[in-house]
Amino acid sequence: MKTRSINSVGALHPILFFAVMYFVVLFFSIFICSSLFYSCSSTANTDTVQEKTVPAKQATQAPVSAAVVLR
After folding, report:
1. Pick from 26, 28, 29, 30: which is nearest to 18 by CA?
2. How far from chain centre, in Å, is Cα 34?
3. How many domains, in total, are found in the chain?
4. Domain-embedded: residue 33
5. How many helices (H) and strands (E) would you count in the chain?
6. Burial 35-49 (b: 16+ CB within 10 A, else e)
7. What pLDDT score was predicted for residue 34?
8. Nearest-5° Cα angle at 41, 36 to 42
């Protein structure tokens, strides 16, 4: 019978699995942290934005009520 040398790769399976998972989690953590950083330090200053309101125009004359007289 011929001996197989591929059995040693099976013993490394947990180590390879955790190594791959480490790089996947590292990639996603860099992506998430950078997106949080850019959203917190954005250049749009929402504190300095001022809303402009225009007061309502007030009537300068008293309303005229007209009465129609029918004869």
Report:
1. 26
2. 12
3. 1
4. yes
5. 2, 0
6. eeeeeeeeeeeeeee
7. 92
8. 100
- Whether residue 68 lies inside any domain: the answer is no
Residue 58 — pLDDT band, cuts 50, 70, 90? Answer: confident
Tell whether 46 is covered by a domain.
no
Query: Scanning the structure block, which residue is given the tokens 């850019």?
Result: 38
CA pair distance 26, 12, nearest whole angstrom: 21
Q: Which tens digit of pLDDT belongs to each residue from 3-55?
A: 665 667 778 889 999 999 999 999 999 999 999 999 888 776 555 556 677 77
- The reported pLDDT for the residue numbered 52 is 74
Give the structural domain span for 19: 8-39
Q: How far is CA 14 from CA 11, 23, 26, 34, 67, in A?
A: 7, 14, 18, 30, 96
* Residue 62 domain-assigned (yes or no): no
